[in-house]
Structures are given as structure tokens and as C-alpha cells.
């Protein structure tokens, strides 16, 4: 499960445990447990809303880059990955005067992950955006 969701559940568990041990069975106990669950749901919903806003921001950035007027703006990611690939091959074949530092490998891993995710979002963002707009406008069949 998501670590943040687990953390939210962990915050509310002690409260629920206290209610279980302190209050005798009855309507008051059930009402308090319901409020704890409602609070947990509200916190989870707030987190999901935050995550959605982050994702929306990333989609907008990648979409703007993909639709940019500048050739460099549209192609900086592939150029970067080709550069990383060239450095990796040169390092593996000992063509570099010095081996790549561990930080370079970390950068390569982050770059590759970002590139793959970025390309994936770039491909799936338009259909998702169209479906979202159609749903928002009340046309669920689009």
C-alpha cells in the first residue's frame, strides 16, 4: 500500500484504540469511532487531492514541452538520454579517461526513470485529458 496512506492509518489507530479501551460499548463509542473513520477518510481524500494536483502539474509541463515551438524544447529529453547512453557505452568499453562517478550512475537512473515516465505521460495525457473534459461536461460516452 502507499506509505502515506499507511501513515494516515497509523495516526488514527491510536485514537481508535483509546476509544475502544476507554469507552464502554454503546452509541457514544460507535459515534466516536465513526468520527475517527470519517477523519481518516477526509485525510486520505485530502492526500489524494494533493497527489492529483501534482500529477496535473506534471502533465501540463510535459504537454507544454511536447507542444512547444522550439525544436530543442521538444527534443531535450531524447538528446539527454542519447548522451547518457553514449557515456554508459563509453564507460563500459573503458573509452573514457576516467570511470563515471557513482553520482553519474545515480543521475542516469533518475534521468532514465524520468524519461520513461515523461514519455508515458506524454502518450497517455491527451486521451486522459479528453476523457476528463468529456466527463466534466457531462458526456460520459466520449
Share of helix, binned: over 70%
Shape assignment: elongated
C-alpha Rg (nearest Å): 24 Å
Order of helices and strands: HHHH
Number of individual domains: 2
Distance between the termini: 32 Å
Number of helices: 4
The low-pLDDT segments are: none
Structural class: mainly alpha
**Strand portion:** under 5%
Global mean pLDDT: 79
Query: Can you summarize the main beta sheet?
Result: none
Number of strands: 0
Question: Top keywords for this entry?
Answer:
142 residues; mainly alpha; 2 domains; 4 helices
Architecture overview:
This protein is mainly α and 142 residues long. It folds into two domains: 1-67; 70-142. It is 82% helix and 0% strand. It contains four helices and no strands. The chain has helices at 3-22, 27-66, 71-92, 102-136. Helix 3 (71-92) packs antiparallel against helix 4 (102-136). The longest helix is centred in the N-terminal third of the chain and has 40 residues, at 27-66. The radius of gyration is 24 Å and the shape is elongated.
Topology:
Elements: H1 3-22, H2 27-66, H3 71-92, H4 102-136
Helix pairs in contact: 1-2, 2-4, 3-4
Amino acid at each position: 500500500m502507499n506509505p502515506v496512506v499507511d501513515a494516515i492509518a497509523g495516526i488514527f489507530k491510536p485514537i481508535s484504540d483509546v476509544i475502544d479501551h476507554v469507552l464502554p460499548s454503546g452509541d457514544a463509542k460507535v459515534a466516536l469511532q465513526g468520527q475517527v473513520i470519517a477523519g481518516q477518510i477526509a485525510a486520505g481524500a485530502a492526500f489524494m487531492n494533493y497527489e492529483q494536483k501534482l500529477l496535473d502539474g506534471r502533465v501540463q509541463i510535459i504537454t507544454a514541452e511536447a507542444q512547444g515551438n522550439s525544436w530543442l524544447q521538444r527534443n531535450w529529453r531524447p538528446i539527454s538520454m542519447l548522451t547518457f547512453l553514449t557515456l554508459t557505452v563509453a564507460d563500459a568499453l573503458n573509452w573514457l579517461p576516467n570511470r563515471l562517478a557513482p553520482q553519474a550512475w545515480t543521475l542516469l537512473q533518475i534521468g532514465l526513470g524520468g524519461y520513461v515516465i515523461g514519455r508515458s505521460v506524454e502518450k497517455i495525457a491527451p486521451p486522459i485529458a479528453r476523457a476528463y473534459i468529456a466527463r466534466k461536461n457531462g458526456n460520459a460516452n466520449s
